[in-house]
Amino acid sequence: MEALRQDDPRRFGPYTVVARFRETASAVQYLAHDAALDDTVVITAARPELAALPAFRRRFEAETRTADRLAGGWVQPQIVTRTAEHPDEDADGPADGRLWTAATYVPALTLADAIDFTGPLPERAVRILGAGIAETLSRVHATGAVLEGLAPRTVLLAEDGPRLTAFGPLGAAADAEARPGGQLSVRLGYLTPEQVEGKEAGPASDLFVLGLLLAYAATGTTPLADGPAAEAAERIARTEPELDAVPEELRGLIARCLAKDPADRPTAGTVAAELALEGAAGLAKGGWLPEPLSRLIMEQAGHVRKLAADADDGPADSATGTPVDSPTHSLLGPLDHDSADAAPDGPADARPDTPATRDDDVRTTRIGSVGSPRAPEPDRPTTQLSIPRERSGPPAELPTGLPPVAPLVPRPLPAPTTPAAPAPAAPASTAPATTPTAPPSSPPPAGPANAPAPGPAAPSLDRRTLLVGGVAGAAGLVVGGGAVLAFKSSGSEDQDDAKPAPAPTRPTVAGLPPQPRWVYTHPDAEPAPLTAALWLDRLLVLTGDTQATGIDLRSGHRVWECADGAKGQAALPAGEDLCFVAGPSEFLWLSARNGQVTHRVPYEDGFEGTPYLTVSDIVGQSGPVIWFTGSHKVTVKAKKPKKGKKPGKDTQAVVSFLFAYDVVQRKEVWRTSVPTGRESAAPAYRLTALRPDDIVVRQTSATLAPGDVKAAKGKAVFRCFDRESGKLLWTKSFGRVAPDGAAVGDDRGLLYAAVGDDLQSFEMPGGKPEWTLNGTAGSVFGTPVPAGTLLHTTNRNQEVGVVDRATGKLRWRRSTEAAPGGAAPAVTVSLSGKTLLAAGGAQVTAFAAADGRRLWKFQDIGVQDPKGATVTAPYRVMAFGKTAVVQRERIFYAFPVA
């Protein structure tokens, strides 16, 4: 932060400028204040010599739109934008063509300044920093775009977490200059291996740069990229990074980010989950920065408040708009007035666009030099970076409906429209693909007909090309992905340059999930769904606090809503055209076509002899028959008193039943008495085994009455009922299976249950152990899934496996690579039996059921808001046909599976 210079603007719209704040290669940031609203903002104003270029204006506006789309979470929302599209209507006189944006001031330090001041960050701070950046990257990559805005001076460290300030190559540029002929030359600070080879940046390129940033935050140096540009490019392309100084817990992840092959790098969601499973906001609670940095941020905030107060209180000079007798301040105190006043008469190179970090600029107080134990270092040499080709026409925007969380899936590049005429290439800030939830943008106008066709990209660059950056002719394209991107603007701003045809569709990268067939996001205005169920492979039926919703499984589009279905459960088929929903007070039959209620059966009077029936959860279903528990109160008459005694009082008792009910014929099949649960309510049963002649259920431990808990002696109690009559056939405990221990039975009369660290098989109802699958210490098996002759297993060490149902012989066991602990992943098998999907709290992992080969991994980081709750909902998978629907809270993805 420094005093204003003679040529600096004094106002931007309603804001009075009070100080220079930071500088970048393409813009100057000012601290400004609006006295009427008591609002302090940071103005980002494009440098005038660059703003005069049409190519720069279009790029600036594109990156501004990207920032608008990403607002929220770790991206500070912009409150004012003044660009060529939105001129400065508040300025005195006509619009002056300035490009600027305003965002609310947040006390923070750049990562570069923080490292200069205190040196490397602690491991926990690096984790939070990386997780916050990765969460934002996952949102960007969900749209098929690439951020290209990461650099030590574009990442801010605030008290509640990191902030990103650049959303494209302009914001992160190490150097930007106007060249003769209207060309714009931009050079970034970091290069990636694929860009050294002349290839365009993709989402994996952001991960490589993130790896460099994390290593820089953890060690204070940048592996591979420090030093002269040509040598750095050579190291990036061919040398493995030296990471010995990186903390051991972070070394492996950073090394994977810095893999030479983009396919070997993790996704942004993977990085976010590995660094902070609970989310950056959750891990940052209670403070995350070293005390010296926190103190410096507080001091910065105090001086900003003082500057704002001075701007409000002091009378403004009529010529400059600056308060009279109001001293400007550096970060930690007033600047020397002699130095500030002498600035206009200083050396010739002390221009307004001179970087504030120059050592010969005596007017600048660098943040790292105040109270720092070491002298500030000049900016390190930056590696010249190839930036993907950009058209000079209006860039495609990110979809308006940008999802708050990221489907981390590869986006294929579109094929050329015709083999003869090259199609326009996508801008650097977006990848040429559309989100499943948004319609594709209209293609931009074609370039001039006489534009030369581009030749193939060179496989690699020599050092001279990296240093000089050859530009290919009037079109302003980079030769072979050279060091400097040059744009040429000829004629009108609306005229497009010729562009090369996009690359053909690339194959899915191994390990990444396939592209979803559709993505459905439940509206933020509605509560998150309480239940989700598939209806006859045609509908995804969601129930919530306010309504039931039908989603077409072919397209992912909402087709109907039903307020009567609020807080319902089950959503089961009741014939070909009706969807059965069990509501809080009645059974409902909804039209599958429009969601309208066609039939109702109220609980209180719909069942003979059970007035005011209260229904608990649905236990299970087979064909048209469902099973559920319910209870009602009965009056127990007092016994006839003995002669001479007063008569007793009648009492109320709760009677509970297990019902069988046909949802197609809408009639009760049978009911049988069962023990009432805790607090005189109906017991909640879970279907454990469905067999040809009977069903086996187990009561959830939370609804067990105290007497039942005592009688069970710490063991689970299973009950078997005849399917035709409802008669109780047997009640049994098996081995040491606990009341909450995972257990499932099959149609062959076997029960598979977790016992301690092992998984055991028992014969029902005799209880004879058939086999034991030994686990490891603390493994604790989750509920297994029988499929054919196999049993698919899962445990809390985040492992899944397959055993032979008859013998218990282990065929394979694999780790999902999620962090051990917590609940065991829930296992789902595709309808073909070929794919096993494990859904846990951190990810969904797909395996080949035959041999355990890992197919892909999917993560959706969820909504991360520093001021809101972190999404911790586990993943859920529902399979139908050749599709697996993956849910995390309010977002659903339909992935193709074998």
Automatic annotation (TrEMBL):
Domain of life: Bacteria
Keywords (A to Z) from UniProt: ATP-binding, Kinase, Nucleotide-binding, Transferase
Compositionally biased tracts (Pro residues): 401-425, 437-457
Keyword ATP-binding listed: yes
Domain called Protein kinase: residue spans: 15-277
Residue spans of biased composition, Low complexity class: 426-436
Signal peptide: none
Region described as Disordered: 309-461, 490-513
Compositionally biased intervals (Polar residues): 320-329
SUPFAM superfamilies (UniProt xref): Protein kinase-like (PK-like) (SSF56112), Quinoprotein alcohol dehydrogenase-like (SSF50998)
Keyword GTP-binding: no
Entry-linked InterPro entries: Kinase-like_dom_sf, PQQ_rpt_dom, Prot_kinase_dom, Quinoprotein_ADH-like_sf, WD40/YVTN_repeat-like_dom_sf
Protein known as: PQQ-binding-like beta-propeller repeat protein
Native source species: Streptomyces sp. 900116325
Phylogenetic lineage: Bacteria, Bacillati, Actinomycetota, Actinomycetes, Kitasatosporales
